[in-house]
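ok so heres the complex, two chains, lmk if somethin looks off
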Amino acid sequence: MQKISVAIIGWGNVGRGCKRAIAESSDLYLAGVVRRPASLAKHDPSLENTHVVDDITKLDKVDVALLCIPSREVPERIKEYQNLGICTVDSFDEHDRIPGLKKELDIIAKSKKVVSIFATGWDPGTDSGIRAIMKIASITGHTTTTFGGKKGGRSMGHTAAVKAIEGVKDAVALTLANGRGKQKRQVYVELLPGFDADVIEQAIKSDAYFKNDPTEVKFVKNINKYNTLHHEGEVERTGMQVNQIYTAEGNNPEWTANIMVSCIRACISSRDRGEYGTYTFIERPLIDYLPGKTLDEKLEGY
Amino acid sequence: MQKISVAIIGWGNVGRGCKRAIAESSDLYLAGVVRRPASLAKHDPSLENTHVVDDITKLDKVDVALLCIPSREVPERIKEYQNLGICTVDSFDEHDRIPGLKKELDIIAKSKKVVSIFATGWDPGTDSGIRAIMKIASITGHTTTTFGGKKGGRSMGHTAAVKAIEGVKDAVALTLANGRGKQKRQVYVELLPGFDADVIEQAIKSDAYFKNDPTEVKFVKNINKYNTLHHEGEVERTGMQVNQIYTAEGNNPEWTANIMVSCIRACISSRDRGEYGTYTFIERPLIDYLPGKTLDEKLEGY
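and the predicted structre for the whole thing:
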């Protein structure tokens, strides 16, 4: 069986996690990492023995590009790769924009005969699958999702959004549970010299990622003291006849990377069946994400 | 939108639960109940205002038949309905036989242009979906499923298997957790007069449903004292970077009925796309099981 050729786009925590997850998967191989500028790779020991380029067209044939870049840059990059005939997996996380973008990107994918798994990762993504299963098992009921538990966890989309603000040297945005289905945010920010803390606090609090939740911003001298990669979440459905709870905790970027790497298989199996399109996680059969050469292998543990 | 026409085959606890779940679903309607002999319905208030027949061909057009009958009778009945051009949903639960039967029934479904969702319900079924998602989110790791918790719960397949033994008047088979991924069985049996308790205990313990687990059989005067419809289960995956637990508890036949009724939608959406076949729960996209007329409605809460 020919291995699936994968490119990692971006070299943050998620990109590094994807490299590890690809190495654990015998059906996949890493064609290279796309990073701008590629010359940065010379100083990065984690990229030793890895082909690093600044443009995906400089790599040999790539089946699937994993977009390990800030969520807000994702839609344009999906289009770029779809137009090159390359399948994509991303972890776009703005829930409200998902149905509209999915339809727009679906048209391109179908015309270019590629498959994209869109807006996947932990939530949206596998949590969306959990919510669907809970609804299937309990037709009437009420589902809530709560992030961060008591100690809080690192939200990657939120952290990236703060880091993108001019004047922010480094930041971490934590999410803490604030009652069932509710959360609050704690943001630690290290400022660049000469920037106004009040202006930056206002920019954070008015950002779409934060404006709907209680948000506390603290300016600190060194972010490392407050940093973490941990996150946790709970999906709960209470119904007339069935009650269900799913809890998960772990290293957030590694978790996202595992899911993105599993999605590579759903791209290729869908492409092989000629089912081109841009799909959310719940629009492809779960079996398509699982490793295994035969149906029997994939159904193991069913 | 035309409603999907459904027939319930069998009138035990699961069949009754399906009737309730269909009534909660505005896209479905109950064409009738198939029960042998149909004349029993005259004495059953739960079947008032319901069309009851002893043969499905006596009902008007049926899109999907829900097989609410003992698991061991399921494979033959699926074939019967597939050959009549009717889609089926069942809760066949013998894990080892699933891959082989799925392939056999897939050939018939494709030739008759129908869709069957095979071996669904709680476990196998939605739990299989949970196990798949957990593996997607944590590529390396170890998954265990534990049934019944501390107080135990009613296993429907096990109970039906005991009730099928000659000499058993009534029975309930409870499953209790016995350590992570392990369980033990407690079986309460009400005997018919003139039957030998030792022979029946031996028949239970040598049955495939029981032979691999510690099983205690108690003979009682009145089963009602020991009866329950409650069950619970836990799926757990421990991984290098992510830990996940799913727990669920509820009324076991209602729970199964909810899932079977959700599967009706996956039959019809697959049939409408011309994707005929016999599929396990994880072989159809989760979105196909959800209610909603449009993609936006189905993606709500994604």
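quick notes: Chain A touches chain B through 60 residues (CB under 8 Å). thats all i got rn
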